[in-house]
Design goal:
The protein has one domain: Rossmann fold. Strands 3-2-1-4-5-8-6-7 form an 8-stranded mixed β-sheet. The protein is globular, with a radius of gyration of 19 Å. The protein is built from 8 helices and 8 strands; from the N terminus they run H-E-H-E-H-E-E-H-E-H-E-H-H-H-E-E. Helix 4 links the parallel strand 4 and strand 5. By secondary structure, it is an alpha/beta fold.
Length: 258
Amino acid sequence: MEGSTPDSLLALHDAGYREVLSRLADGIVVDVGCGVGAQTKRLAASNRIVIGVDYSAQTAIDAGHNFASKELAFASMDGSHLGIRAGSVDAIVSSHIIEHFVNPERHVAELARVLNDDGQAFVITPNAPADFENPFHVYLCDPAQLISILRLFFDEVELIGLEGDDVLRADFAQRRSAGERLLKLDPFKLRNKIGRRAYVWAYENALPRVYAMMGSDKSGVGSGLDESHFFATEQISETTPVLFAIARKPRRFSRDAR
């Protein structure tokens, strides 16, 4: 949410795309859940054709108006049923998308289906033990769970973590503490009993006001934290904020021919 999302969370997404970009080769790249397209734009290059797809048609249209070029296009697609020919993509990105699926295996199956035999899928998602409460996150994974889901459809899975430095960890700890104090105002968890649509509406409308009331020194908005405060590591702990998986050698099933 522009103007109310803490800088550390924006940096978290930036760092994920930085790690993807450092591993991309030539060819056709699909970014699933591209949103407004600002991050997808980073992946475009003269030796790559990048297609950003989003469930929201209007979002894809807006992204196209802002960023479309010879190397970059946008379209509206469902991440669990991509309108892309099987085996036609050299790399596919799923950045902070899998946690939004009630049935994430359908999304992973599509990543594998459209990827060619030598391609790579990049799956980035919050580490379940470290994640903040978020009504949009309906299926969180810890490292073992993410590897398990990916290995249903890929023969080779590599997992690393995106860890924060001391400054970043202090920011996360401060915001988590503030969030826990707010949640204590709802000891009976009524927020989970009012219906999902009402909960999401309240979250979308109340959170910006809460951050404004907290002030930038506590909310992290305008802190100046950027992707340089994140680094890749093989040492993943319960406090590591982000999981970054690279999946290769997609498995083939009879339905993949469609």
